[in-house]
Each structure stands twice: as structure tokens, then as C-alpha cells.
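hey so i finally got around to running both of the ones u sent me last week. sorry it took forever, my laptop kept dying halfway thru and i had to restart like 3 times lol. anyway pasting them below in the order u listed, first the sequence line then the C-alpha cell line for each. didnt double check formatting much so if smth looks off just lmk and ill redo it

first one:
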Amino acid sequence: MTITPEKEITLTAPDRAACAEKLTGLLAGGEAKNSAVFKLALVDFKNFNDIFGRHYGDLLLDQVSAYLAGFEGAEVLRSGGVEFVLILHGSGYARAGEVGEEICDRFNETWRIGDMDFVCAMSLGIVLPPLAAEKGEMLLEMLDSAEHEAYLSGQNTAVTYTEELRESLLRTKAIATRLKNALAVPDDPDLEVCYRPTVLYDAHRYTRAESYVRLFSDAYGLVGEATLIPIAEQSGLACALNLYAIRHTCALIRKLLEEGRSFETIAVPISAVQFLQPDFDRELAGLLEEYDIPAEKLALEITESTLINSFVQVNYMMQQVAEMGVELVLSDFGTGYSGINNVLDLPVSVLKLDRLFVLQLENDERCGSVIEGLISIAHKLGMKMIAEGVETDHQRELLASWGCDYQQGFYYSATVHADELVGMLSMPHPEDQVEEL
């Protein structure tokens, strides 16, 4: 089906409440036993509008809606601006699976509008019959969960809702609620800011560290940063968690300075969403002033992969922060997300080698050539290099032979509390640590 730019737009307005009401009726009417429901969300549609204009964007939405309505037994609703809900009446497992595959295949092809072809990506969540939900909003949440997993799995991917996914959703909600409550308390003991020490190899002593946030939950035990940060981002708590960690780190830096400890910087890993906040530089300046610490003693660390969708905006705020004197660290370097050209445009002074490279040193000699090359690139760019995830003497020796400036990992130290870090950064005779490290 082709739609020309002159065609009048007939797309209905998005209405999640009306969609939920419709699904509630579906569940109450007994059709849930032989109906499948899909949620299709277009990916990066804002970029499409920015490039081609809203007129073509609306025509594309209209065409997607018409395509979905073309399936036998289909009823199409809009739960959001670029989100469609497809009810497939009279569908069993097999038919639902076929439709899911067909939709994914269709989005791997181009969409023709007028005399132009366009590429549009999506993610697809599926709830198979019988629809085991009590209310329409519950069914929408199930679809949201499946569609989000599809989004994380890659473009034009479908994920079917399962009980395992349900348990994961409940766990995420519980942790998000616990995190929100912990952030509302100034010093909740269940929300810890710990630190990972970093060794300056040639000096054989700890000169840097980075913060590590973890949360204790009665239901799920200790929740580490790798789990906590994505949940914070999904639940809108990322900025609050970032500022919580920055505040605690500023307090630690103040203590280190008052006790005359010798160190370079203490870093805080930051979600990219923080750099999208227009007042972040002012908030950061306020914290530096409140704790009376030099900007150069604080470092902010951002993951290379988070730059994909908002490079320009994030880079602008990074420039503002760098002008204040705060050190910027780019982690996961070498994974290839942003490329060397983008790295050159960023105001970073430290690169952090992705831990997967270090891990592969144990069983893949070719990885050594890659690491050596990345370290050489960093030095030629005038940047420092940190290798994280060092766990063996073999890894330590190889990295040192290639001139890696800093090393971090369980070979040297596990994650420590702030008071422990104070002692590690203040050993008076660094040369005495050679054998110990």
C-alpha cells in the first residue's frame, strides 16, 4: 500500500485510557481465549520527523496503521504517539507467531510515501491467548514489558510476554519503589555509595577511585550498580541517583582534602540523561561550592554506548562541565559505539578500556594486539588510560608492558567503603606497596 503526500490524514489521536478501556471490554467479553494482542512502538521517530518533517511523519504513521489493519481479524488502536496496539481476533498461538514474524519482516523493508522510500524501525511486544489479565491497563503493562524487552534486543525484534518476564517486571517495580523511598531519605543506610580504587601503576599506589552505588532490598537482597542504574533510568530516578552519588563523593573529597590525603580524582559514573538536563552544570557548580572542593578533584564518567542517540546534546553539556575544570572519563572505550571521530570531539581526558577486552586476554592472544593499539591511541591523543576488570597477574603484567597508566579490579582491591578508601589513598610510602600490589 502506498500513500501520497496529498492524502488527507485519517489517523486517530493516541489515547491510552481509551485503549485500556477497549482491552477491558475484550477481556470481559470472553474473546480473550482466542485473541492475541500486539504492541508496536516505532524507534527514533523524532529523528525521522526532524529530517523529513511532520507531514511525512504523519503519512508514515497512517501507512503503518493501515498495514496493521490489513491483517484478518485485526483491530488497531493507538496507545501513544508512535505506539500501536493490534488486537488480532480469532487468533491462536501459531497465527500470532506468524503475524509477529511478518511484522518484523515488513519493517526490515522500506516504506514508500509518494516517490520516496523510507526506513523505519520498531519493537514489538506480544501477549498470546488466552489473555491472562484482569483489566485492560494490566494487559497494557504486559505489552509494555514485552515491547521494552524487544527494544533492548535490537531493531525490528518481537518478544512474547512470559511469566519469567512478569517476574522480572515485578522485581523491577519493587526495586524502583525501594530506590525512590531510599532517595527520599538523606542517609538511608540501605543505599550505599562505595568506591573502587584505581592504581597508578608506575607509582605502585592508589591515586584514584570511582563510586559504586548499591541498594539493599528486603525482597531481593543486595542490588548492584549494573542492575540499579538501568532500573533508575527506566523509572525516572536516574538524575536523583546521580546527584546522590555526586553529593556523597563531594563529601568524601572534602574529607580527603581536610586530612591532607594525596590523590588525583574521585569519579562518579553518570547516566547520559543527566547531561541532557539544562541546569546540570549549575547544579554541579552548586555542589562544588557547597563542599568547597576544587573542580579538578571530581571526575564524571560516561559510557561510550550512551552517546548513540543524543551525542550533540550530551557533548554540549560535557563541554560546559569540562570548562568548570571537572575531569571527564569515557568508559567502555574500544567497543566501537561512537567511533574515534566522536571521541576526538568530546572534552574527555581519560579513556577507560572495556573490561571485556581485559577478560579475553586469558584466552585470545589477538585481543592483546587490540588493547596495545587502543592504549597507544589514547597516549597519542594525550589521554590517560584506565584498564578495569584486572583479576590476574597475567593481565596485570601484559597491561603494564603496553604502558597502561592505571589499573583497577579485584586483583588489587574489591569495592570498599569511603573510610577504607581514605586509608588506601594515604599510604605514606608508596614504594612499600610494590610487593603488596
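and the second one:
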Amino acid sequence: METYDALLASITPATGQNSRTILDPATGEAVGQAPVHTVEDLEAAIAAAATAQPEWAALGHDARSAALMKAADAVERSAEELAQLLSREQGKPLNGPNARFEVGACAAWLRATAATPLDPETVVDDGETRAELHYRPIGVVGAIGPWNWPMMITVWQIAPALRMGNAVVVKPSEYTPLSVLALAAIINEELPDGLLTVVSGGRDVGEALASHDAIGKVMFTGSTATGKAIIRSSADTVKRLTLELGGNDAGIVLPDSDPKAIAEGLFWGAFINTGQTCAALKRLYVHESQYDAVCTELTAVAAAMPMGNGLDENNVLGPLQNRQQYDIVARLVEAAKASGARVLIGGNPDADQPGNFYPTTLVADIDNDNPLVAEEQFGPALPIIKYSTVDEAVAKANALDVGLGASVWSSDLGAAREVASRIQAGTVWINKHGAVDPRVPFGGAKQSGYGLEFGAEGLKALGVPQVING
């Protein structure tokens, strides 16, 4: 694509097709028109995918990987146009770990997925028995994505599915369909027709996709409640599932930490994408000996981070993507204030400001059972809780029924690893939070979902294991 206008035009619905206007969460202005696909459109997409898939599977890993590498090149050629669209539709700024970062991650994940080796595994070879483990294509995979990282998480879903010889039908969030439609249009420049289709519909389309008997696997990133509904709807067809669900990640600052040295890492662990990240730091436990210093240093970092329209090159924080999420954050902060918790910065949104901007907010001296701590805020508000013993901090971190990620912050790597081993979460980072890597498996514990993504384990999850014994 040569220009932003050309990119947008490539996904604009045809005259007479049902559509709806997508608004910029920073300004309320129209970004573009998104098609409103129906269950009948979904049926057509699944039929096309089922037709295209066998030939794609027959190409083998090398040819499929080569196509993914070319798709990564195509994404990079349109990187700035994609970032502009993403910023307008999702709200995240161009700079910082935001829109340009997300588009870059799409290309990086395509390449890493293509390059990850997955050879047949010899599990027994003793002279009498030889057993090899292979992974065959599933067929057609359904991918249902969220609005917070719409392009990147779509690539997390489609890249391994395609690499393993599957076709994919994508159902994007109704809040951010344009970004996913544009990304798929560019990737499709390097794929056979019908292999990858985006069906931009409502809840009825998502429900039909999750229960369709021609879909062999569903990949879903989103709320725990919706994940449970997908589990139920998939039961009759015994679908394979990968579910990355809600999280309320804990961070534990140990007594030997250096508050000034870790403050910026803590900030971005919590406020990446303005807090709208499943595996963001959402409740911070700080030892009483470090508590005041951490509060002071973290407040200083927060005060220096500009928030505003994502197209302004100076901003690194943006609006909440939708008003529903804004209202959740506002309700939780108000509950904290009403309880007597101390607001270090923020907590005072400007009612006259256009857009869904909620100020960067840090809340101290808050009880562990306060709603801002116990519920996932998914926005720019971080509660900071004081603890006396490490056992107390670990118990509080493990008390909730979710466990996507967590982090431990310490100058003593051995001590940090010991504490990390006691936390009930799919990933525990040390002296960082939320740093995902396409080579490293990622998945949740407890009600944060199940199944692994990324690396060889992520590829295996998009295949059917077959043992050849003899």
C-alpha cells in the first residue's frame, strides 16, 4: 500500500454492504467504515477456508514458512500506514511501546514463527520399537481477538495456525475491526485465496464460529466470562481450544530492591498500552521498608509521561479504547477514594476533555480486598499495597482465581527466583513485567485460561499429534 488513504480504501465496504462507523477514542471523530458481516458471510468464509486448506497443507513447512517471511516483509512495507490506522482506531500513541511497536511485533512474530524448528520427535527407538511423534494440520482454525492489541494478538493466532498447515477465519473485536481487516489484507498479498479471512461481525458471528462443526480449533483472547462461554459452545464438536483469558497480575517488590532503579520498569509493566494489557502489572505489593520510596519514585516517573492524542509524536499514553472500559476504571478508582485510600497522582478526569482519557493514577494505602485490587481494572490505575513479610505478599498474590502473569523485583536474583517459584501464574518475570518473546511459551494458570502460545509449544498447539509406531 502506498498511502494511508489507499490502505483504508482497501477495506472500505462496497456500496450497499452493511457497515458501521468506527470512531477515534481520542477525538470521537470517524476513522472509517467497517463491514458488518453476517453468519451467512461466516459460512462462506469457512467454506472457502476448507477448500483452500488441503493444498496449503500439502506445501510443507518450508514453503509455508517462506510465505510467512514474505508476509512479514509486506507488513513492514506498510508499517507506518498500519500504525496510523491502529492509533486512530485503538487510541494508542504512535510512539513508546504502542502503535509502531505493535506493527513491528507483527512482523517479528511472523518471522519467528516461520523460523521455529519443529521436527518429528523420536520418542522410543530401542531396536524393537520405533515411535515417532508428528504434528498434522487441524484443518480450519477460528481466531477470536480482542481490542487492546488487535493486530499483534491476531498475528499470535494466525501465524502458528498457518505455519502448521491450517486455514484461519478471524473474528475481530467490534471495537477494532479496521486494524485487523487492514493487517489481513496485507498478509493476504502473500497467501492463496480463501486461506485467511476476516469476518467482521457481531456477537452472533462469534458464537457461530465457536460452535461451528467445521472449525477444528478456536483460539481466543479476551475475558474469562467469554472464554467460559466458548468452552461450553465447543463441547458438542470437541474442539481444541487455546484460551488466554483475564488476568490481574501481581508484582512483588522485595526488601532489597532499589526503588529508583526499578521505577521505570514498574511503570511500563503497569501502564503499557495505557494499562490495557492482559498481562500488565495490575496490583503492586511493596515491602514496608521500601514502600514510601517506591511510591515517590513511581509517582515521579508517572508525572513525566505525556498522555494525549496518539497521533501527537510527543505522547506515550493514550485514551481508553472505549467508554465502557473508561467507566470501569472510573468506578474502581472512586471506590478506592471512598475507602480512604491515598491518591498519589491522577484520579481526577477532566469531564470537559473530548475522548476517553483517564489520567495516569497511582493509589497507595489501600486494602487488599478493595475492588481496585481485587478486580481487573484494565486501565491506567495502579494500586500499591504495603506488606510486612514475603509470605504475606505471596499469599496475597495467589489469593485470586486468575494467574496469567506476575513479577518479582529484587537485587538478589536467587531470592527473586525462589519467590517466583511460589507464585501461581503462567509466567513470572524478574525485574520486568509483561515482556513476551516469540521463542518463549506463554499461557495462563487458574481461570486465566489454558494452552500455550509461542515457540515450538505454540506450534504444537496448532497441530494434531500423531504417533507413528513401527
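quick thing i noticed on the 2nd:
Residues 249-430 form a domain with the Aldehyde Dehydrogenase; Chain A, domain 2 fold (CATH 3.40.309.10).
anyway thats it, ttyl
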